[in-house]
Amino acid sequence: MINNPVQGEKSIEGRHPWLLSFDKLRSNRVALFCLYFLAVIYVLVLLAPFLAPYDYRKNFLDKSFQSPTRIHFFTTEGKFLFRPFIYDYQMADRITTRYEEDKTKMYPIRFFVEGNEYKLFGFIPMKTHFFGVEAPARIYLLGADQYGRDVFSRLLMGGQISLSIGLIGCLITFPLGLLVGGISGYYGGIWDTIIMRSSEVLMSVPGLYLILSLRSSFPQNMSSTQVYLMIVVILSFIGWAGFSRVIRGMVLSEREKPYVVAARALGQKDLVIIIRHILPSTLSYCIVAATLSIPGYILGEAALSFIGVGIQDPDTSWGLMLAQAQSHRVLTSFWWILSPGFVIFVVVLAFNFLGDGLRDALDPKMKVIK
């Protein structure tokens, strides 16, 4: 007699393993929230030139360290307006850098306004910005830095550098680590010894010192684009060794399984067996490892830019922006300059929670969600 499944229990018979893993991930609310949160962050960063109200490189020295702009709905007479507006800010005390609102004129916040030229996605020329106000007023959602540049605009544009480095770094590190670890584990012998000893030498060098030594070997007058590419290469160069060792161990346990022996007996080439049959079995681990390694790339870029050997002005990144908050005066008087540090903290935390959720969801030894 066949027992029917308990009412409300989801049957797993005949379902694809990836669907079961997705069900596990959906049951983890923290990981799912982090996934949606990171998706929103990446969309905002992708649309950064459109969402940023101003050119992130343009200086306005008369607005140095202006505090975040207050958005109003009520006039000075107490009348409610459906369209939000702001007041222009004027310097009230140059010693303490204190600004006050000039309430003699209101500046409505307008949407889809004309502004500086930019290229959306790097190739679509546009002038339209999502929001803005009429000059001479300026809207600073997160205040201004010491040169009067909009922190909100620089935060969005800096995210393009800081977040893309992690993705590009993984695209370089993981295929290299998969191939090297796969060859080492599959062939063994002298190739295994040479590859693993080389990776151990690389892993024995402290990462920060290795980054600094590699950075110092390049010219100091490099452009920000060249520095960006160089940082990606450096971070990828030091990241593949540990990953390849794990892959090598997984390949050692897979190479003698029946499906690999059958592929070898059918005369398939070794490289085809490694790429088509063995490495796909490591896919779940690769997804989790990639998610957990992206924060390392973000922090690595931030550290390089913070100490002055990464992205340079007038370009921006989260680490470069955070470097402005090194003085006691900035820390105590201009709290909005610390916003890049808060964003780095939240994004890194979200990646780690998402990585933990993916690890639980993709682990076949975990109990199946009912």
Q: Give the domain tally.
A: 2
CATH architecture descriptor text of the largest domain: Orthogonal Bundle
Could you name the CATH topology of the largest domain? MetI-like fold
Work out the helicity level. 40-55%
Largest sheet: 3 strands, antiparallel
Structural class: alpha+beta
Strand content: 5-15%
CATH homologous superfamily heading of the largest domain: MetI-like
List unreliable stretches of 5+ residues. 5-9
Main sheet strand line-up? 1-2-3
Residue-averaged pLDDT = 82
Structure in words:
By secondary structure, this protein is an alpha+beta fold. 55% of the residues lie in helices and 13% in strands. The protein has two domains: 65-149, no CATH class; 154-362, Orthogonal Bundle (MetI-like fold). It has helices at 17-27, 29-46, 48-51, 151-187, 189-204, 207-216, 224-254, 258-265, 270-278, 283-306, 318-322, 328-333, 339-362, and strands at residues 72-74, 80-93, 98-108, 110-120, 124-132. Strands 1-2-3 form a three-stranded antiparallel sheet, with no helix packed on it. A hairpin with a 5-residue loop joins β1 (72-74) and β2. α4 (151-187) packs across α9 (270-278) and α6 packs across α7.
Using brief descriptors, characterize the structure shown.
alpha+beta; two-stranded antiparallel ribbon; 2 domains; 370 residues; 3-stranded antiparallel β-sheet
